[in-house]
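2024-03-11 09:14:02 DEBUG pipeline.ingest accepted 1 chain
2024-03-11 09:14:02 DEBUG pipeline.ingest length=393
2024-03-11 09:14:03 DEBUG pipeline.predict start
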Amino acid sequence: MAGALDGLKIVDLTRILAGPTCTQLLGDLGAEVVKIENPSTQGDDTRSWGPPFARDADGGNTDLSAYFMCANRNKLSVALDIATPEGQAAVRAMVAEADVLVENFKPGGLTKYGLDADTMLKLNPRLVYCSISGYGHTGPNASKPGYDLMAQGYGGIMSLTGAADGEPMKVGVGIADVMCGMYACVGILAALRHRDATGEGQHIDIALVDSQIAWMINEGVNYLTSGDLPKRRGNAHPNIVPYQVFATSDGHVIVAVGNDTQFIRFCDFLNLPDLATDLRFATNPARLANRDALIPLLEPALAARSMAEVIEGLEARRVPVGPVQTMDQVFASDQVAARGMVAEVPTPGVEGESVRLIGNPLKLSLTPVTYRRPPPRFGADTDAVLGQLLSES
């Protein structure tokens, strides 16, 4: 069955996480993605970001770290040195026939190689050229390098993440990179629709910091509306109470009381009905104002019950509740199995072995995602891709 993007050709000049996340998603949807990797560094930096690594036939480490594999399936790997005339010529030949080029060099970094947006759009006016960088191609910080942690710090998310009395805290995964890759993918699809309607390609300029600021969502608009700086509240919600993690006798649960009726049912479960009629807690604005008085009254009642008891009791009362699961619990769950959120693909070069990857969350009824190629070994497709270019020239 053909993918939604079947027939699209993507030239991938990205590395690390933001760009590879974008191009992997395009590949999952059916596009052909050719990943250009630098021979002098043995490819994408993340190939060495381990352990863990996929194992070769003799049990040794390959160049497929878990980090690399998380964002590089459904791609061909071509080893090319774009600093050489031969490498530049090969990339130009690919771009002449491509639909999309994605790169994450520092702004202006590809100009000296003749691979910048202006040059490539003259070569192929139908091209969608997507540039991912730390701060974007304009503004006083345009020349600064961009990393996920720096974006999380500059863009504000760290200032409101972590315990109230602790230091600013990053999110546990490279979420600024991942969300930038997602925004880049949306931009590429929008530009392709415009290209298909008009014949015009264009340049997309997307920044990690811009993306991170964009997904500040309610906390960002809370500040813009009130002028009050958000506070770190750990797992608590800035606008809803109680809406946070609570300890039970054998683990942690999330309780998300979204309205006053749910709060009445929540208090009924805890055998604390007086809290629901207490004027300090009867409405969400009152609970928000009296958070520090309410939470200590709820904590011991929940801590005296098991996770299973809390989840079963609150679900029966239609109060939103859920477990805080560890990775083993996540990937062993029947929900993950039912949704196909673990994908097994062959380990390149190792007969009968496979690696387990996180599945794509998109469920398209007519053009489903496919896992056609495992994350590639470095340069594995160089001869095939370049040979085809020579035969077509």
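2024-03-11 09:14:41 DEBUG pipeline.report The chain has two domains: 9-215+335-392, 243-247+252-323.
2024-03-11 09:14:41 DEBUG pipeline.predict end
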